């Protein structure tokens, strides 16, 4: 498996990716001190970008999650739970009102 990345990135997008790295603390000094983590972070960001994730906030969250700095939410979102129930075939609780209104 090759470690070379063959991704085409515009200069403006490269600036965004560099900003995400800088905000996460991966600057030139950290890359010299511990190049292994810096290289992993760069590859992760490029792969996420290549997969279509272009939001700096989303990229920062994924970078933090990858390195264990941001805990995953303990409660699933309502949309996720709805989709999970649909996939698993679980019916939601349905409230049925009496036609007499009682």
- Low-confidence runs: none
Helix content: 55-70%
Name the average pLDDT: 76
Radius of gyration: 21 Å
Count of runs of 4 or more consecutive helical residues: 5
How many DSSP E strands?
Answer: 0
Largest sheet: none
Termini separation (Å)? Answer: 69 Å
The proportion of residues in beta strands is: under 5%
Spell the H/E element sequence.
HHHHH
Pairing-aware structural class of the strands and helices? mainly alpha
Describe the global form: elongated
Task: Write up this protein.
The chain is mostly helical. Helices cover 56% and strands 0% of the residues. It contains five helices and no strands. Helix 1 crosses helix 4 (56-66). The model has no long low-confidence stretch (mean pLDDT 76).
Give the SSE map.
Layout: H1 11-23, H2 28-33, H3 35-50, H4 56-66, H5 78-88
Question: Can you give keywords for this protein?
Answer:
mainly alpha, 102 residues, 56% helix, 5 helices
Summed up, what is this model?
The protein has helices at residues 11-23, 28-33, 35-50, 56-66, 78-88.
């Amino acid at each position: 498996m090759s470690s070379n990345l063959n991704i085409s990135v515009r200069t403006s997008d490269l600036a965004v990716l560099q900003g995400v790295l800088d905000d996460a603390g991966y600057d030139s000094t950290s890359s010299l001190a511990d190049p292994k983590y810096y290289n992993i972070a760069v590859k992760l960001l490029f792969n996420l970008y290549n997969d279509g994730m272009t939001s700096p906030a989303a990229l920062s969250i994924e970078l933090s999650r990858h390195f264990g700095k941001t805990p995953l939410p303990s409660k699933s979102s309502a949309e996720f739970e709805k989709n999970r129930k649909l996939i698993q075939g679980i019916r939601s609780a349905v409230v049925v009102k009496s036609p007499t209104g009682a």
